Amino acid sequence: MSALRSSLRFFPVGIALLCVQLDFFSLGLAMPTIAKGLGYQVTDLQWLVSAYLLAIGAFTIPAGRIGDLVGRRRTLIVGLALFAVTSLICGLSTELVPLVISRAVQGIGAALIIPNAFALISNDTTPRERPEVVGAMIGLSGVGTALGPVVGGVFASTVGWQWVFWINVPLAVVAILGSLRVHESRNDTIDRSLASIDWWGALTVMLGLTLLSLGIDNIGPYGWRSALTWGLMIAGVAGLVVFALVERRAASPLVHPRLLRNRPYVALIAVGTIGNMGVNIFILMATFDLQVIRGFPAQQAGLLFVSGSVGVALSGPVGGWLCARFPATRVLAFATIVGAGGLTLISTASILPVYLAALALAGLACGMAYSVTQIGVQSVVPPQQSGEATSFMLMPLIALGGLAVVITSGIVEQIGGGTPTAGGVSTVLLGSAAVMAVAGAALLLGERLGLLHETDAAASVPGTPA
After folding, report:
1. How far apart are CA 397 and CA 270, in angstroms?
2. Whole-angstrom Cα distance, residue 176 to residue 191?
3. Helix 46-70 crosses helix 96-122 at what angle (to 10 degrees)?
4. Is 2-182+254-458 a domain of CATH 3.30.200.20?
5. Which residues are CB-contacts of 6 (< 8 A; sequence separation ≥ 6)?
6. How much helix, strand and coil, in percent to the nearest 5, is found in the chain?
7. Which of 22, 176, 227, 452 is the most exposed, having the fewest neighbouring CB atoms within 10 Å of its CB?
8. pTM
9. Which residues of 219-232 are buried (b: 16+ CB within 10 A; e: fewer)?
10. How is the chain split into domains, by residue range?
11. pLDDT for 385-422, tens place per residue?
């Protein structure tokens, strides 16, 4: 009952997360309509997804630190306001470049929302109720996941794709007004000055991820032998190396070394990142399959994809319930292995009912890779470090999810000569399934061998690896 009451207290925070999820999942099935309206190929529009994800992944670390300093509720509200304004601008855009730029800024707004939402919950719940409350909020955000494809498909084929973005505005306003009643929290153990933030670290990590993404994106049109492709990728890797060096010398690093010595935390991030890449890949491949290969119109494709998005929506509550009873690392390992099976089934299913069942299985299992990682992280670090830990977790989780979109789009383009084909989609899904299966098995083996020891900070928390 206490978990239910806490869940109701954080309902506005869940609406904020729902806003982010609805935006992401509604865009996928609207992309062919947007491409047609702007005069581009659908594969040219992957930057609407990846620019958004990369902005979230690159900016979440400073966003979490800002919340620790000035207040997580205040930062959440600023993020919601920025998200609403840029959503309005996205809908008004008539050219691809300003639309992509607006999406990147929108990603910064989402970055301010996500880590501070979870930090607000972690700092105002008991260790026992925390997994189920976090799971419930992820479940509420999952309503956006479930409705997203329907909203995207219906809006794109009726009132216009612009409403895919404009629907965020009233939701963000509701979340802002409700969040004013949520209890404020800060990290009082650190320097409260914004000047203490490692801005050079933030700059280098964002620059490195952006350059690396641009290089990977060039593989499709220019190939592996292009000097520009390799130059951008090398520059991106160099930027990330500089980020690591800056962090080692920073007086107040964005990522404290003690987090990287927390084995359950690092294991959750590593495998959760691979699992979340599977989520992004299966959504993109399903979009190509349903609309380009199978030929369904946007509205009908959105309705068919509901099976997969409902699976993703259920992953939060199911993950929270399981993490309150079993070690989060074990739940994540099994979810990743089952998700690999779901991707394999999607790649081989030719009969539509079997294909829809495979989407549901992949959505639930791969979605749990994302939700269980977030739930587990709240259990293996002290609450006052939740903002920092969640921020660092989201950087690879979301940024590499964006890179997965870029990479797999390039592979599909190469195989199909610029047009998605069944062979290209199948190759991507089977390759992703193999990587996920190996990652899940390795995590399960590490957990069984006792390599993931419980941390002192989480010694009495349910769902922590023993």
Report:
1. 8
2. 27
3. 40
4. no
5. 124, 125, 129, 133
6. 80, 0, 20
7. 227
8. 0.72
9. bbeeeeeeeebeeb
10. 2-182+254-458, 198-253
11. 766 777 777 777 776 776 777 777 778 777 766 677 77
